[in-house]
Design goal:
about 190 residues, alpha/beta, Rossmann fold, eight-stranded mixed β-sheet, two-stranded antiparallel sheet, 5 helices, 10 strands, globular, binds adenosine monophosphate
Length: about 190
Amino acid sequence: MANSINGPAGNTRAGLDLKSLVRTIPDYPKPGIQFRDITTLLADPAGLRASIDEMIWPFLSAHIDHVAGIEARGFILGGAVAHELGRGFVPIRKKGKLPYKTIGQDYELEYGVDAVEIHADAISAGDRVLLVDDLVATGGTADAAIDLIRKSGGEVVAACFIIDLPDLGGADRLRRKGVTVHTLMAFEGD
Ligand code: AMP
């Protein structure tokens, strides 16, 4: 599989313009950030269905054991992707939220560090995992999630996102880790 799979500029094969369903909120949560709000896309019946269809099509014939989603928007998308692929869903959560034994991974934020965790028994050695989140910016969150899957003994088949912010370099960062990245649309200049 190629190291990069990109959708046709936000248009689905059905011709729906998914990009126009994403709402942009300037200066949220702080000045200078263009927040790409997918709640408007999720609320649109055709938009939601087409987004999930576009996320899964490269993986219809791929060997995948689990779909992992990153809290919180990755849960909404990852749950639907797992259902469509007929696989189980594994949550990757912020530190302290999972009830059983966990494996953790710290990652750097603009100010300070954060951590994500996965249940220690969620993934077995050799399991092939598809990672899902809504958006890749710097790639720090997904990078930590990939490390968690690998620490668990799993192999990351690909990471898929609705939105890429290419100027922040996150997708390239994940590709440099040897992960195939699949995105449906890009917003340049952020
Ligand atoms: P990063 O770790 O920098 O790739 O950030 C990715 C995470 O932060 C994703 O879970 C996104 O939901 C969220 N995020 C980062 N930047 C934005 C943005 N401009 N608009 C919406 N969500 C964002």
